[in-house]
Amino acid sequence: MKLISSLTLAGAAWLLAQPALAQFAKPDQAIEYRQGALYVMGQHFGRIGAMVNGKVPFDAAAAQENADLVVVLAKLPWAAFGPGTEGGKAKDEVWKNPAQFKEGNEKLTAATLKLAAAAKTGNLETLKVAFGDTAAACKSCHDNFRQK
Amino acid sequence: MKLISSLTLAGAAWLLAQPALAQFAKPDQAIEYRQGALYVMGQHFGRIGAMVNGKVPFDAAAAQENADLVVVLAKLPWAAFGPGTEGGKAKDEVWKNPAQFKEGNEKLTAATLKLAAAAKTGNLETLKVAFGDTAAACKSCHDNFRQK
Questions:
Q1: What pTM value is reported for the model?
Q2: I want to staple B76 with a disulfide (CB 3.0 to 4.6 A). Which of A73, A123, B37, B94 is the partner?
């Protein structure tokens, strides 16, 4: 119980500790911001997906460009899940289990760095593996923290 | 008239010529994407505005971080104004005057590069000037191409 409490506190502290990026005048702005950032990220991630799934021809430069954008965008949404910003598509679990949410966010940002590194190799098979790992990080968080 | 036509064609060609970033399965996705990118950009630009307008203390590192994000985000929305994506908050003028729209997009992206350079100086007065110029580029396009 003590462990859970301290993990929860650590997560809550992390949600509060992003001063440069956590300045929203109103909760609705935070919700629109995080949904916008996640949507734009999803589009660029999806363009890599279309390549690794063979729906569009593999274009190494485009994959790299999209992966670099995913890296930048993957850092943004989490600061917009601060206290008092419940709602949108988020489950209450975001605020009930902030340590788990933080862990999921960090797994994603780590996965996106590997995705960008894989894209830089120009090797489609390498990219496929990194894409799968990143997609798993997306899905894990969605399963736990996003409403169906 | 010939000049106008060729400018219009140049603008239309530009809207079509962004293959890496212009892949939207449905018009609604393009609209959600561009609105998301513009909203996230506006939030980060607004954080610099809060500093140059004295609403929050000047934090040079935060200003630089936000300006760098504005540079990245300012490149994104325009590919999502392709043919058949009319609607959202955009006026029909986007598609009627693509050359003028393109010119506005390019003015903004150029202004954001100067904004980031100004932020890197760490000088608030320098940043104020660049912020004002960037805000003017935003406003000019909004006046012409965004619904009230």
A1: 0.87
A2: B37
CB contact under 8 A, A23 and B61: no
Question: How far apart are alpha carbons A107 and A100 in whole angstroms?
Answer: 11
Q: What is the pLDDT of residues A85-98, one digit of tens each?
A: 999 999 999 999 99
Amino acid code (one letter) for A134: T
Cα separation of A125 and B17, whole Å? 28
pLDDT at residue A14 in the model: 47
In this structure, what token pair is assigned to residue B136?
């003017």
* Total beta-carbon pairs less than 8 A apart between chain A and chain B: 53
User: If we measure between CA atoms, which residue out of B29, B64, B26, B72 comes closest to residue B48?
Assistant: B64
Q: Is B147 on the interface with A (CB under 8 A)?
A: no
DSSP line for A15-44: HH--TTT---SSHHHHHHHHHHHHHHHHHH
CA A10 to chain centroid, in Å, comes to 19
| B81/B11 Cα distance (integer angstroms) | 11
Cβ of A72 within 8 Å of Cβ of B72? The answer is yes
The tens digit of pLDDT for each residue in A9-64 reads 555 554 444 443 457 989 999 999 999 999 999 999 999 999 999 999 999 999 99
Question: How big is the CA angle at A128 (ends A139 and A60), to the nearest 5 degrees?
Answer: 120
Assess B76–A contact: CB distance below 8 Å, yes or no: yes
Angle at A52 between CA A46 and CA A58, to 5 degrees: 100
Domains contained in chain B, number? 1
- Is B86 part of any domain? no
Is some CB atom of chain A closer than 8 A to the CB atom of B78?
A: no
Judge whether A34 lies within some domain: yes
Asked whether residue B14 is assigned to any structural domain, the reply reads: no
